[in-house]
Specification:
Helices cover 19% and strands 33% of the residues. It is an alpha/beta fold and 275 residues long. It folds into two domains: 100 residues, Translation factors (Elongation Factor Tu (Ef-tu), domain 3, Beta Barrel), CATH 2.40.30.10; 121 residues, Nucleotide-binding domain of ferredoxin-NADP reductase (FNR) module (Rossmann fold). It has a seven-stranded mixed sheet, sandwiched between helices. α6 links the parallel β11 and β12. α3 packs parallel to α4.
């Protein structure tokens, strides 16, 4: 797909500070009307000095309100450098270029979901990647199993950002903090075990140590799991080879044990990646 055809000027309709240095921006755009949970967009800083967009996962896509055009796209991100700082400095009604949707999202076909108790594990900034997925799963009436979300935070200073959004969807949502200052003490897997939550299918996004633990956990128990990998990206469209993950199988085209997170991912079957 040619990137010129999926890049548009989009107006910011909402800006919200969720926690220290963590923002939610909503755009009025029809760019991602067909987006799948787990995909991401590139957001271009407003000063034009930075040629590359910042990759940010899609947190939600909704129909626009009366009088608005297209749809509303929401992202949630942390200020991590000068580019995201410039994006965070924008205000309502400012215009930014965004590009997408990009990458592959979470699989959710009927055969995969049938009869399974589903657990979504989000660590830190992994939560936004799962919010859109949770909404789509909750809208389905053909999932007989349970759906539970467990969100992990460093401590209570992050104000359990997005937890209330998951609850408003109608999904059971648990909180874990590393220091026990809120919710269950420990990580998301500790919270799952201590709460007696059973998982037949896991979706997860978070820092790599967390995802490595999820791989061990799911492998030992033969639980299918799909993970969205957080990785620094440059081009975001598979050209620069700056974001790769080692794979269990050799790529048939490149003949190496690597996959590009931005194009083959960011979501992978956990058994296919070495993390």
């Amino acid at each position: 797909m040619e990137t010129e055809k999926i890049r548009k000027r989009s107006r910011i309709t909402e800006k919200e500070l969720l926690a220290p240095d963590i923002y939610r921006l909503s755009f009025e755009t029809d760019l991602c009307s067909s987006a799948e949970p787990g995909q991401f967009i590139l957001v271009y800083p407003p000063d034009g000095a930075k040629l590359l967009g910042r990759p940010i996962c899609i947190a939600d896509v909704t129909s626009a309100g009366s009088g608005d055009a297209g749809q509303r796209l929401s992202i949630v991100f942390r200020i991590a450098g000068s580019g995201t700082r410039e994006i965070a400095s924008c205000e309502k009604n400012d215009i930014l270029f965004i590009e997408g949707p990009l990458g592959h999202g979470y699989p959710s076909d009927d055969d995969l979901l049938k009869g399974r108790d589903i657990v979504l594990l989000g660590g830190g900034l992994g939560a936004p990647s799962l919010l859109f997925l949770a909404k789509k799963l909750a809208e389905r009436k053909d999932i007989p199993g349970s759906i539970t979300v467990i969100l992990g935070y460093r401590d209570s200073s992050l104000d359990h950002f997005l937890a209330d959004d998951f609850r408003r969807i109608g999904i059971e949502t648990l909180i874990a903090t590393d220091d026990g200052s809120e919710g269950i003490r420990g990580n998301v897997l500790d919270a799952m075990d201590s709460s007696g939550i059973r998982a037949d299918l896991i979706y997860a996004c978070g820092p790599m140590p967390m995802l490595s633990a999820v791989k061990r956990y799911s492998t030992e128990r033969s639980i299918p799991a799909y993970v969205s990998l957080e990785e620094h990206m440059a081009c975001g469209v598979g050209v620069c080879l700056g974001c790769v993950v080692r794979t269990a199988e050799k790529d048939p085209h490149s003949h190496v044990y690597n996959a590009r997170i931005c194009t083959e991912g960011p979501v992978f079957d956990i058994k296919d990646v070495e993390i």
